[in-house]
Design brief:
Blueprint (H helix, E strand, L loop, with lengths): L2 H19 L4 H15 L5 H4 L5 H19 L2 H12 L7 H14 L4 H18 L4 H14 L7 H11 L7 H29 L17 E2 L6 E2 L30 H19 L4 H13 L6 H6 L3 H20 L1 H11 L3 H16 L4 H17 L5 H14 L7 H9 L5 H33 L1
Antiparallel strand pairs: 1-2
Helix pairs in contact: 1-2, 2-14, 4-12, 4-14, 5-6, 6-7, 6-8, 7-8, 7-19, 8-10, 9-17, 10-18, 11-12, 14-17, 15-17, 16-17, 16-18, 16-20, 17-18, 18-20
């Protein structure tokens, strides 16, 4: 590789290092890098540098975060979560799966993964504290649920990945990507519950927040018509898992009446789904229009809704995609892919890429890595030696499943919302669990999504 190709690559690595250790949005560094490489190495003007600016993705992020921000403010998101919990009659063993499902529905509808975890984790961690359930397992289930739906055809990540692949002339079925992500995260969640349940039994632990067997304690009622609720002792550690001390707990004494605004919000969610999935209209404009309708129900909160748009995500995605497009113009991406192809072992290259994106994503932005790593795999896919959707799905899932790390946004949100626990110990447990996931998940994705389809 020439210095013209190597220097921009070194700059890309430096961006991730800087963004990991300093609180700066990597998208800002991406725009700076795009200008530096484009203007001084390629002689481009500003229009040529921004030729690949991802306008459709930017509008999608703005639209879905605006719409679901309004839905959160009027209480519709909380209404949906509580309705799901009541549907299982408060059975403690089922409730973690309820939070998994709720988070996956939010991201499948278009909510960005950290936003979904931010919406769900307060209720999930509060429930874990009230029922003496492991906050570690509850947090993992919530994060896995958010990842499960994160690559739907109308989600931010799903649109990003499909756009990257299709821009290279390849085709990918967005539904296959979605179901692959859902299946892997569902499998990881089952392994999580079974693994920690087995560990708890070998250590003779109750499913408690103190990490030790819990004797019967006085109970208080949660209100008229509610079942007795055992309260978690304050302080203490965090039990690894979880056999429920009590199996019939209700969150609320009675369901909250549904307001007219909430009914309108639910109707709009249904309309958005129909227009996007059936009539194939762009979710960006549809979501913005739906959010505007909700804004008219309470104009006093219009500025809050606009401020609630995930502008940091917009900046991150736009900056990284723009910089990677400049790297493609200069030949760096093609040269790296050519070097990978000359190794002569496509399966090995795919495995290495899965681990590179997985390990790095535990400390850096998953979305930024998707924009950086997937283009490197595209020339390899053009050879036809590996299944396109399998490799892309393996890379995409490897980049997101490791976000249980406390260094990631999702892991940090779970840590921040945990209640009645020794926070340093909970931090260490999240860190150990993240290490296990980083070691296992990329290999699992590679084996199921790449190796098996290739051999078949």
């Amino acid at each position: 590789m020439t210095s013209v190709e190597v220097l921009p690559l070194i700059a890309l690595v430096a961006m991730f290092v800087i963004a990991t250790f300093f609180p700066i949005n990597i998208g800002i560094l991406g725009f700076i890098g795009a200008f530096g490489v484009g203007a001084f190495m390629l002689g481009y003007d500003d229009k040529e540098i921004l030729a690949a600016f991802p306008s459709s993705i930017v509008l999608t992020i703005i639209g879905v975060t605006y719409f679901f921000g309004m839905a959160k403010k009027n209480g519709t998101i909380d209404l949906m979560v509580n309705a799901c919990i009541r549907a299982v009659r408060g059975r403690v063993t089922v409730v973690p799966w309820v939070f998994f499902f709720c988070a996956s529905v939010l991201t499948a509808l278009g909510t960005f993964s950290p936003a979904a975890v931010a919406l769900i984790s307060p209720a999930a961690m509060s429930f874990a504290a009230r029922t003496k359930m492991s906050p570690l397992v509850m947090g993992i289930m919530t994060i896995n649920g958010a990842h499960a739906g994160a690559f739907s055809p109308i989600s931010v990540s799903g649109v990003l990945v499909c756009d990257i692949v299709e821009s290279s002339g390849l085709s990918i079925n967005p539904w296959t990507l979605f179901f692959a992500s859902y299946g892997i995260n569902l499998l990881l969640s089952v392994l999580t519950v079974v693994g920690y349940a087995t560990l708890a039994r070998t250590r003779h632990l109750e499913f408690s927040a103190t990490g030790s067997a819990v004797a019967d304690e006085p109970v208080e009622t949660g209100g008229v018509g509610s079942s007795p609720v055992r309260h978690t002792p304050t302080g203490g550690g965090t039990g690894l898992l979880t056999r429920p001390v009590q199996t019939d707990v209700l969150l609320d004494a009675a369901p909250t009446p549904v307001t007219r605004v909430q009914k309108l919000t639910l109707a709009l969610i249904g309309i958005v789904l129909v227009l996007v999935l059936v009539f194939h209209l762009p979710i960006s404009f549809i979501a913005i229009a739906a959010g505007a309708v909700l804004a008219f129900t309470d104009l006093s909160k219009q500025n809050e809704a606009i401020a609630g748009i995930s502008w940091s995500t917009v900046l991150l995605v736009a900056g990284m995609v723009t910089y990677i497009s400049v790297l493609q113009e200069i030949g760096t991406i093609d040269h790296l892919a050519t070097m990978a192809i000359t190794i002569g072992a496509p399966l090995l290259v795919a495995a290495v890429l899965c681990y590179v994106i997985g390990v790095t994503s535990a400390f850096a932005s998953s979305t930024a890595l998707l924009a950086a790593i997937i283009p490197m795999a595209l020339p390899l896919l053009h050879t036809g030696a590996l299944p396109i959707v399998g490799v892309v799905a393996a890379l995409a899932i490897s980049a997101t499943v490791v976000d249980v790390s406390p260094f990631s946004t999702n892991g940090a949100l779970v840590l921040a919302n945990a209640q009645g626990i020794a926070r340093p110990r909970f931090y260490r447990q999240l860190l150990v669990n993240a290490g296990i996931v980083v070691a296992i998940a990329p290999a699992l994705c590679w084996l199921i999504l790449v190796v098996v389809p290739t051999l078949l």
